Amino acid sequence: MSSVTIDQRATGYSLGHALCMAHAADLAYKDKNTVENTAREWGFPRVRHHETRFSPPFPLEDTQAYTIAGEHMIITGFRGTEPKNIRDWLSDASTPPYPGPGGKGFVHYGFGEALNSIWPQVRAALDEFRDSGQTIWFTGHSLGGALAMLAGARLHFEEPRLRADGIYTFGQPRTCERLLAREFNTAFADRMYRFVNNNDVVPQLPPEPAFHHVDALRYIDSKGKLHDSMPLASGLVDRARGLTADALAPASDGVRDHFINNYISALEKNQR
């Protein structure tokens, strides 16, 4: 991790910055000492840890994140959860809808509860650290990607004086219904970047039509090549190719593709 160099003056999208944000999403899984030491190595000397416990009707007991601040940039990284823990409750579309940010549509109940439980801590860190006009970035993998997207939406729709300059998510599940997705796509046309690795199972959940993805897809194909979109026909062929890549364990592809280290490896490969 110490070899990562984050350009704190970065704006908009670049492959290099996407790789940095993937490392930042991975950092959310580390212990507090590792987060603090790594942040300092990256040039972000100020760190706040966020953690809270709550009891939704799924096997999800806490939300964890961190906020780090440098001279020109602030990053909040949200921790995700492993596929074996997330798949069952993501598949459950019977829970009540949770009001979306700023009254814009609805979100998956688990996501709404998870972000709401930690949001006061995140907002306090942003207020504390943003003392010289630093840009604000949210990132996360898996569940953390859903929380990163919703955090950006909360700033935009509820506190427009403070906005996220960019959101990078990796293996993000479907997060909201159609109305919020449409409003979010308009607001974040050049600020949201959602990466999906081939057959990653988590972006395929919760089920449609109740839940939808936001736009700005960046698709990693079965050979590890990054695309700005995934055409329907060729995308289906490529996903089938990924499923048959491991003849001994074809069903494992959807879980294997979800691991954050595989996103990082793919982005590194595309930089060469």
UniProtKB/TrEMBL annotation:
Q: Domain (Fungal lipase-type): give its ranges.
A: 77-208
Annotated GO molecular function terms are:
triacylglycerol lipase activity
Q: What Pfam families does UniProt report for this protein, alphabetically? A: Lipase_3
Gene3D superfamilies hit by this protein: alpha/beta hydrolase
Residues annotated as transmembrane: none
Gene Ontology BP term (one): lipid metabolic process
For this protein, the record's SUPFAM superfamilies field holds:
alpha/beta-Hydrolases
Q: Do you know which PANTHER family this protein is assigned to? A: ALPHA/BETA-HYDROLASES SUPERFAMILY PROTEIN (PTHR46086), TRIACYLGLYCEROL LIPASE OBL1 (PTHR46086:SF3)
Q: What is this protein called?
A: Lipase
